[in-house]
Amino acid sequence: MASSIPKSAHQWNVAGEDGIDTLKYSEQPVPDLGDNEVLVKLHGASINYRDIVIARGQYPWKSKPGVVPGSDGAGVVLAVGKHHIAGSVTRGISGFGTGASVDGTFRSVGVFNEHGLVTMPQGLTFTEAATLSCAGLTAWNALFGLIGKQVSAGQWVLTQGTGGVSIFAVQFAKAVGARVIATTSSSEKGKLLEKLGADHIINYRETPAWGSEVERLTGGEGVDVVVEVAGPVSMNQSVASVKLDGLIAAVGAVGNGDAQEMPNLLDCWMNLFTTRGVWVGNRLQMEDMCRAIEGNLEKLRPVLDPKVFSLDQLKEAYEYLESGKHQAKIAIEIE
What we know:
Order of helices and strands: EEEHEHEHHEHEHEHEHEHEHHEHE
Strand content: 15-25%
Distance between the termini: 19 Å
Strand order of the largest sheet: 8-7-6-9-10-11
Structural class: alpha/beta
Radius of gyration: 20 Å
Number of helices: 12
Largest sheet: 6 strands, parallel
Shape: globular
Number of strands: 13
């Protein structure tokens, strides 16, 4: 086993706060393995808008200088620390942010805390599995994470766009028999949503006040759950879309355009809905999601953008994500 462990690894580091140009690629020694850590040979990764924000120095939470970016990855365990891999998530562990406060997945070999790893679903490729820990888990938590308000058959779910979280939300919602209204910016991107089974698709450029259209499509009721990814540019329409006693899961702020005056806490009372912030999810939710995917690969196989990048092309992958031309998840293949 020892002979199979490499001495060095190729990796990216965030060397400043000026955007993509601050990313630096190099070969570095493989880190020492701690008692509660796992050495992983990475074979796949995927990128998130969060990675761009970190490179710009705009991440609102802790980020260490020179961090190896990347929150999502999949690979093979090469070695483990001397302590058993198990245990509960603690408050201290919850402060870790892979690819921000601790080194992430954009490298060929890495050391990770045991609590940050789960077994990947059988039947997936490494790049497919590498989409699950951020986008997949965020969507799963948004739909099923709040006790008493988990999405169920016959309910209405609203998703926004064709990014990773939104595509997973469509897949998960349809898998449990829910009805989906999806917004998009173009008829071309709408084809993917139609293929995944979205019941109604609204072009938000052609219908800026799409909240009223959502209300009409649901017979005047509104949707049970909004998976809100766009942020200030869409929140007023999300409020107009949600039913009485419905749920808005606020998971991000990736929307482009002029920010509108955002709803405030009083709107939750005046319109009688719940707004819930979602920061990805926990390990138990991740394991539940992986079991669901493994048991229903035909419907829940992760969707990848046709354009796949190698590890040394990471800057190009960031630029592609920043352009907004992608659909679903952008994958990184790692040799």
